[in-house]
Every structure is written in structure tokens, then in C-alpha cells.
Design brief:
The chain has one domain. By secondary structure, the protein is mostly helical. The chain is elongated, with a radius of gyration of 19 Å. The protein starts with 6 loop residues before the first helix and ends with a helix. Helix 1 packs parallel to helix 3, helix 1 runs parallel beside helix 4 and helix 2 runs antiparallel to helix 3. Helices cover 82% and strands 0% of the residues. It has helices at 7-40, 46-79, 84-97, 102-123.
Amino acid sequence: MSGGLDIGVAKKIDGLFVALDEFNGNIMIDFRAAYVAFQSDPCGSGQFLHRSIERISDRRNQMITLKMQILALVELAKTNPNSDAFSNIFGDIVRRLKPEGAGAVQITVSELREAETEAKCLSGEIQ
């Protein structure tokens, strides 16, 4: 995707695509956690699932926007990689791709494990 660019700029762009892939992976983890929680209590978790799906949809839309901005940045890098516009857009994308924080990730992992355990108890898989 970043072929034909200065090696330094190409590395920056490639790093953005790696971060975008991680962003997408986090969306998938969020979906799995929401579904497992819903699966453990389908009657009582309807609103939770609905709110989770809305949040996941918002993040997916954000991911699509970020991808389009990265592709536009690639085009800008081909013509003017040393411009202030390139630096500003790159910095903005990096800030938006940063994870929500280790605490948020830890909560998601904890919730996922708890929901999986509860689902196994309800199914009789574990006592």
C-alpha cells in the first residue's frame, strides 16, 4: 500500500495499518464479550446487547473513517510527505488509533472470562 514512498514515510504508514488492524481486533473482542454476556442470560441481557451493538457499530464506523483517512494520507505522502498537513493528519490518526487504555482492555478481558464462566455454569458444563 505504501510502495514508492520514502522509507521513513512508508514505515509510518505501515504502522498506521498495523494499528488499524489492532483497532479492528478490539472491536471483534468487544463483540464476542457482548455476545457471551448475552448468551449467558438472553432474557435479561437484551438492553445490554443492544447498547453493546450500538457502541460496536460506532467503533466500526470510526474504523472505516480512519481507514479512509489513512488512504488519503498515503496519497498526500506521494505528493508532499514533508508538509505540515501530512504531519497534522498523521498525528490526528495516531491519537484516534490509541487504545482506550490498559484499564479498559483489562475490564473487557475480565468481563469476557466472567461471562464465559457463567455461561458454562448455566449450560451445566461446569458445576
